[in-house]
Amino acid sequence: MQDDPDPRAILGSISRLLRDTLAQDLPERTRFLLRVAANAADLVGRQLALEPGYDAAERRRLSLLLGSEGSLAEQNARLCAAIEAGEITLASEELVAHLRATAREKLAVDQPKYSAYVAALRRDEAHTS
Amino acid sequence: MTLSDADAIAECLEAVVRREFEGCTHISGLRRLASGASQETWLFAADGPHGSERLILRRAPGGERQHEMAVGLEAEAALIALAAECGVVVPPLRYVLKREDGIGRGFITSFVAGETLGHRIVRDPRFAATRQHLASDCGAMMARIHAMPKERLPPLRRADAGLRTDELYRRYRSFSAPRPVFALAFRWLKENLPATGSTECLVHGDFRNGNLIVSERGLEAVLDWEIAHLGDPIEDLGWFCVNSWRFGEIDKPAGGFGTRAQLCDGYRAAGGTVEPGHLRFWEVLGTLSWGVSCAAMVETFRSGIDNSVERAMIARRASETELDLLDLLAETD
Asked: Under an 8 A CB cutoff, do B320 and A111 touch?
């Protein structure tokens, strides 16, 4: 077992350091790169927190959809082959629901402020409320 | 960029300006603008006893390198000059670099004042009035580009819907990880290829918010002609509507500031022809094209050609196009 602080907490402090540095008077290009680096640290933090649960959920959905077991890479390769062969199409509600869920799990890590992701979350809220 | 780059360019540029720009004795304030990874853009002033004029130098990266799809700096300059003649707003072309100038391949244009940052164009209150007519103006400008006389164009790559789909698919297949959403989008594109035939014309290839100069008066210039080609005109309209170029304004499909109807009405009023299904095809292809470009960064990053944080973060933008593609494919005509 590794000692504390845990990786997410350390990433948080890297991100804060980078953002604090942004407040200083630096060339435009340097400020841009620092902002990108801070965003990257935040992304890694989200991935560390969310990936295990998301991977398990994606694996469950793929098993149901394909009726087979395997690693995520193997299962996704199988799904691509089935799509290319026309064995499973846009007409399949299960396929579309799975792909939407997976895309949203990626965006929760990659870009939780992306417009289409925020709009999708809002549509869900409207449905459940 | 190193300081010596800027110094070397400045020295050669001053010689060009003294020779080619009447009344100019020296240059000042040369600095590289942040925009454009595939080409260098430099701002400087040409000064003389009668005043000072701001100018822009567009140059191949490092002076010589060129993207495989790029038309080449000399052809880009020729396109800009012809576009101006045809009523397309572009930065006026002032000089095309020669080998003996010692700065590499490129050209000099006038500086056009205005905003280029997409997120400001879609949100800044200064442009509220401009946004009312900007989508329609962009549509009209595209129609003028598509009507540019083919016999006067420089040699260009040909790429219609089928060829664009094939070249994207080949790039996608070269990736180590398959992507189910992309596979589904390719399948849709192959089943929905528009009929081709007599419509081949000049396609700008990168007409989108982020490559425009906009002011309170309206559209001031269309930039970045480097991937212009001969193809299907509706490619430009579809690319313009890709969600990634709406800068967060998802409910304004045309550039983040207008409707598809405004874009198409402006296009038709200036002589263009467009059908909704055809536009949708190119919007799907445009979204997939951006997605494939982002996903390709994974290989660039991994190979060590460019393992910067910036590159890694662009690679992680592939997922945005997956949700956009699913939204687009779910729409019914």
From this structure: yes
Q: How far is CA B71 from CA B158, B228, B286, in A?
A: 11, 7, 19
Residue of B323, B329, B331 to mutate, interface with A, max A Cβ within 10 Å: B323
Asked if residue A35 lies in contact with residue A61, where contact means CB atoms within 8 angstroms, the answer is no
Adjacent-strand bridge partners of B55: B44, B110
- Rounded Cα distance, B276 and A24, in Å: 49
Q: Tens of pLDDT along B202-212?
A: 999 999 999 99
C-alpha dihedral (B176, B177, B180, B182), degrees to nearest 10: -50
Where do the structural domains in chain B lie, given as residue ranges?
3-110, 118-330
CATH topology of domain B3-110: Phosphorylase Kinase; domain 1 (3.30.200)
Kindly provide the ipTM of the predicted complex, given to two decimals.
0.94
Task: Give a yes or no: residue A24 inside a domain.
Answer: yes
> B284 with B328: CB under 8 angstroms?
yes
Residue B276 per-residue DSSP state: H
Within 10 Å of residue A29's Cβ, how many Cβ atoms?
12
Among residues B220, B212, B269, the alpha carbon closest in space to that of B236 is found at B212
Asked if B34 and B121 touch (Cβ cutoff 8 Å), the reply is no
Nearest in space to B213 (alpha carbons), one of B136, B121, B132: B121
Tens digits of residue pLDDT in A18-50? 988 877 788 877 888 899 999 999 999 999 999
Domain-embedded: residue A60: yes
Are B322 and A89 within 8 A, CB to CB? no
Average pLDDT in the B149-173 region?
Answer: 95
